[in-house]
């Protein structure tokens, strides 16, 4: 828990103000962002975006009193360390609250600015965009966002698979959904303790499988899948809320029980 510091006394007010101004002025120079190149070299500075296939970085000058613009080809970047901006927290909060419009307004500009940067928070936002567009019934943008995810983060195989399953469900292709998600369901069954990312992915997969079972009229199986999302793999709160609504409808309205 973070606690607010006491306000400066009147006698120290101008000292505090000056100190704060100096910190603000030097924040860019002393930023702790970094990129590691394929050859092992490390560049430090303030990452300001991706443009023309290059990572744009503000690098401190040798005297430490300023900064200069520098670029590194994105293709040469093996890893990156960058503190997520405030807008990232806003985007995640909107996603967890089920506010798709607010999520997109916060997430899309960030993804456009940093797409391809190999850092977890950019990857996560990029992976959530297809689902957000599908929630708005915007199939064309969902397909484009999924293609962008696959092109920029090909290693995110689980997120890509779930994205394809979402599209297949929207296109009313339940057999493809099951074919895509069954390996993830099998992995979940063999995982004793899922980490946060795994748990979120498993929950999303079972939620989608539950919808397929409903379409097929297999209501007990659908309920079981929804309950796995709400009780076992509940890291993605937005998906849990949707699964809970589905489970409640089955148990309270149709009196379905788990097989």
Q: What can you tell me about this protein's structure?
A:
The structure is a single chain. This protein has 259 residues and is an alpha+beta fold. The chain has 2 domains: 10-80, SH3 type barrels (Roll), CATH 2.30.30; 86-253, Serine Threonine Protein Phosphatase 5, Tetratricopeptide repeat (Alpha Horseshoe). The protein contains 10 helices and 5 strands; from the N terminus they run αβββββααααααααα. A 5-stranded antiparallel β-sheet has the order 4-3-2-1-5. A hairpin with a 6-residue loop joins strand 3 and strand 4 (67-73). Helix 4 (120-135) packs antiparallel against helix 5 (139-152) and helix 4 (120-135) runs parallel beside helix 6. The radius of gyration is 23 Å and the shape is elongated. 32% of the residues are buried.
List the main descriptive attributes of the protein structure presented here.
259 residues, alpha+beta, SH3 type barrels, Serine Threonine Protein Phosphatase 5, Tetratricopeptide repeat, 2 domains, five-stranded antiparallel β-sheet, 10 helices, elongated
């Amino acid at each position: 828990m973070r606690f607010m510091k006491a306000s400066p006394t009147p006698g120290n007010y101008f000292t505090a103000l000056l100190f704060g101004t100096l910190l603000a002025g030097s924040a860019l120079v002393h930023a702790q962002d970094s990129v590691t190149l394929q050859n092992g070299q490390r560049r430090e500075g303030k990452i300001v975006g991706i443009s023309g296939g290059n990572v744009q970085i503000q690098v401190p000058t040798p005297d430490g009193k300023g900064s200069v613009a520098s670029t590194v080809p994105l293709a040469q970047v093996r890893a990156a360390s960058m503190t997520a901006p405030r807008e990232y927290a806003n985007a995640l909060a909107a996603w967890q609250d089920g506010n798709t419009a607010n999520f997109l307004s916060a997430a899309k500009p960030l993804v456009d600015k940093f797409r391809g940067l190999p850092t977890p928070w950019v990857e996560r936002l990029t992976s959530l965009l297809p689902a957000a567009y599908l929630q708005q019934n915007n199939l064309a943008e969902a397909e484009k966002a999924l293609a962008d995810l696959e092109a920029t983060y090909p290693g995110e195989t689980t997120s890509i698979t779930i994205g394809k399953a979402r599209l297949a469900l929207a296109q009313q292709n339940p057999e493809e959904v099951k074919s895509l998600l069954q390996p993830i369901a099998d992995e979940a069954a063999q995982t004793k303790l899922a980490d946060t990312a795994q748990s979120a992915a498993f929950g999303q997969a079972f939620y989608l499988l539950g919808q397929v079972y409903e379409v097929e009229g297999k209501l007990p199986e659908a309920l079981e899948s929804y309950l796995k999302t709400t009780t076992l793999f509940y890291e993605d709160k937005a998906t849990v809320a949707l699964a809970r609504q589905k489970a409640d409808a089955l148990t309270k309205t149709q009196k379905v029980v788990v097989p």
